[in-house]
Design goal:
Blueprint lengths: L1 H15 L4 E12 L4 E4 L4 E3 L14 E9 L2 E9 L1
């Protein structure tokens, strides 16, 4: 019974399109204030989320970014400049 319940919960989350948080580290390759996004040297593109300051990010800066996948975009929840 317990395994069936756990399976049902996992399946429900998978089908609901729930966002999963992730974290990435790297150097900023480019910043696009118009699109409200930045790209890391490894090609990872991240869009700015609510409350993430755009003015502190410059090309060449080392960052750690936490983000959620929303509507096919990596939306930052936190960006820390090192």
């Amino acid at each position: 019974m317990r395994k069936a319940l756990i399976g049902a919960v996992v399946l429900t989350l998978a089908l609901s399109g729930a966002a999963w948080a992730a974290e990435v580290q790297g150097k900023i390759k480019s910043v696009d204030p118009t699109e409200k996004s930045f790209v890391l040297e490894d090609g990872t593109k991240i869009w700015f989320g609510e409350g993430v300051a755009i003015d502190t990010l410059k090309e060449g800066a080392e960052v750690t970014a936490s983000y959620d996948a929303k509507d096919g975009k990596n939306v930052a929840t936190n960006v820390e400049v090192k």
